[in-house]
Amino acid sequence: MIGFISDNLLLPILDFFYGLVPSYGLAIIALTVVIRLALFPLSAGSIRSARRMRIAQPVMQQRQAEIKSRFANNPQKQQEELGKLMKEFGSPLAGCLPLLVQMPILFALFATLRGSPFADVPYNLNIKVQSPEQIASAEIKPFTSASHSIFYSETEHVPVIASLPGGNRLAVGDQATVLLETRDGKPYAEVLSKASRPEGLSPSWSVSRGEDVVSVSDDGTITALATGDATVDVTIPGLAARSGFLFIRALGQVGFYTDGAINWDIAILVGGFGLTLFVSQLLSGLGMPANPQQSTANKITPVMITGMFLFFPLPAGVLLYMVIANIFQALQTFLLTREALPDNLQAILDKQLAQQATPATAGAGVGMSDTRLPFEPKGRK
């Protein structure tokens, strides 16, 4: 499903924007904004539900406890009253459905930006080498990898698969050639002949596991050397993987720290992601009663996630998308926090804010006659 959405929805939109402005960086930004605008009604529903539940939750918990205590011996009446409560305030799960609906599109967008043309596309083939006797008794099944859309020009791409018609089980001494083909059986070499820069799109071959089990040549021929398991990797370069944008050296660049050097463009993108995430979380609490636990989580979570992405292998193009998506999310959150609440929830919110303001006011009055310095213990005058 993710591949279908990517091939039939996201890549055509990407092609359209690249046709308007020949910049893959701007195309990523435009694609992100378009998808976020399209998903606005769904994400807005999740944000509204979370905001309302944050206000209603203390009252709902109190009312639920009262209902369960009052109708402990009458389960039917208890369920009836709990149903009325959910109808009054809404279900805590109401915000999950819009989130689940939009997840496949967001996953497809993430997958699209991790592949061609923004990053090199890897195909991993697991090979099992056995003795001739074992192979003779084994059922032969053709092996086919997942399909990846490969860009061979700025706006033209085709789904390519890697396959082993004789299967991925080999006998010692056997050879098998990996076929790179389009879905309709056209050789990838034929696709390359139409490429704008064919010399930069030739596949590279390597053995990432089991070098003593198999070897692979530059034309994709695998030779079985000894029994065991192995993994053969073929990588097709991304057309724009080495293209820059603004301060980004290469959209396909992966890693904050590589070859003993810090990639400052990746560091800036990761830092921008953490900052925009922090701002978005702060905006979600606008106009809400103070919650020390939530405030602490809002500070710690962006730091933890940002630290993780410093060492998580994401291409710069994906990080650019994540920063733009966070900015859009922050703006959306800001707009929705200014939205009027239902009367019953507004009354609860006003009461919660008044209750928090009362101790602060009382404390201010006491402070006027208290001559203690802030660092002095309470018992000292």
Brief synopsis:
This protein is of the alpha+beta class. It is 52% helix and 16% strand. The relative contact order is 0.12.
Describe this structure in words.
The protein is an alpha+beta fold. It folds into 3 domains: about 110 residues, no CATH class; about 120 residues, no CATH class; about 80 residues. Helix content is about 50%, strand content about 15%. A 4-stranded mixed beta sheet has the order 5-1-11-8. Strands 2, 3, 4 and 7 form a 4-stranded antiparallel beta sheet that branches. A 3-stranded antiparallel beta sheet has the order 6-10-9, with no helix packed on it. α3 crosses α10 and α8 packs parallel to α10.
Compute the separation of the termini in Å.
Answer: 71 Å
Low-confidence stretches: 360-381
Structurally, the number of domains stands at 3
Q: How many strands, which pairing sense, and closed or not: the largest β-sheet?
A: 4 strands, mixed
Share of residues in helices: 40-55%
Reading side by side through the largest sheet, how are the strands ordered? Answer: 5-1-11-8
Mean pLDDT: 75
Based on CA atoms alone, the radius of gyration comes out at 29 Å
Count of strand segments: 13
**Morphology:** elongated
**Tally of separate helices:** 11
